[in-house]
Amino acid sequence: MYQHKVTTAELIYQIGQMEGQIIQYCLADIGIRMEHARLLHYVSDVPGTNLVNLANYLNVQPATLTNMIKKLEKQELIIRHVDPDDSHQRQLFLLPQGEVVAKQINAIFHELNDVVDEVHLKDSAQLSKLLNLLESKKG
């Protein structure tokens, strides 16, 4: 009988899919979608970040980011302020409820990271290098 050989690329894809499913399941309990969770996680780590940096991190178009921000502002999770050094830029900050939600999100991400760490990947720098190489192929 033929045994399908699973490639490294396929394994990475399957791992990413599984992680996404686990995170979505956990986020459902707090009523947040994955893309909003990533946004809140980033703003939690980089308070006062600007929209350009955030769009690059999330890999989304500015219009998509604006819609995401508007939704989170309506939920009173984040707020935009004018950058004191550049009036054309906006900075993002978590509001108190956003800090609570971000802590829950960070706990979910850290718990999943603990599972990944159990595998004892020897060199996470190599995974970062792979990600950068793949990003350069996007065009």
Structural description of this entry:
By secondary structure, the chain is α+β, with helices and mostly antiparallel strands. It has a single domain (8-138), classed as Winged helix-like DNA-binding domain superfamily/Winged helix DNA-binding domain (Arc Repressor Mutant, subunit A), CATH 1.10.10. It is 65% helix and 12% strand. It contains six helices and three strands, in the order ααβααββαα. It has helices at 8-28, 34-45, 51-58, 62-74, 96-117, 124-138; strands at 49-50, 78-83, 86-94. The protein has a three-stranded antiparallel sheet. A hairpin with a 2-residue loop joins strand 2 (78-83) and strand 3. Helix 2 (34-45) crosses helix 5. The chain is globular. The N and C termini lie far apart (40 Å). The model has no long low-confidence stretch (mean pLDDT 87).
The parts where pLDDT drops under 50 for at least 5 residues are none
Question: Rounded to an integer, what's the Rg over CA atoms?
Answer: 18 Å
Quickly give the CATH architecture. Answer: Orthogonal Bundle
Corresponding CATH superfamily: Winged helix-like DNA-binding domain superfamily/Winged helix DNA-binding domain
Q: What count of structural domains? A: 1
Helix content: 55-70%
CA-CA gap between termini: 40 Å
Number of strands: 3
> What's the mean pLDDT score?
87
